Amino acid sequence: MKKEDTKRLIRSTRESIKSYLLAINRMEGDVDTSMIQIYKWFVIREKCIYSSLNKLEARGTFLRGEFWVPDKYRPMLSASMDRIRSN
User: Fold this and answer.
1) For residue 11, what are the domain limits?
2) Tally of CB atoms within 10 A around 56
């Protein structure tokens, strides 16, 4: 990858994160929330994701673990798992 491509990717990532955080701010309905608070929410969310991922067990090229899913999402989960198995 060229240096210019890397810079463009970093710039694009920063813009995506900023727009995502601003969208979260709008969803909360609080216009006066500071960017520091938004970044704090983002970091908390990321920590939760990585904490969950760290609980998985590596089995070859797959990660294996148990989790809870609401009944209303089971059909979507089953369809996703079938798609993964077929690939």
Assistant:
1) 3-86
2) 13
- 3-state secondary structure at position 63: strand
Q: Total structural domains in the chain?
A: 1
pLDDT tens digits for the chain (87 residues)?
577 877 888 888 878 887 877 776 666 555 566 777 778 888 888 898 888 888 888 888 888 888 888 999 999 999 998 998 898
Burial of 54 (0-12, 13-18, 19+ CB in 10 A): exposed
CA 23 to chain centre: 15
At what angle are helices 35-54 and 3-28 packed, to 10 degrees? Answer: 110
Plot region of 56 (φ>0 → left; ψ -120 to 50 → alpha; else → beta): beta
pTM, whole model, 2 decimals?
0.42
- DSSP code of residue 71: G
DSSP state of 59: E
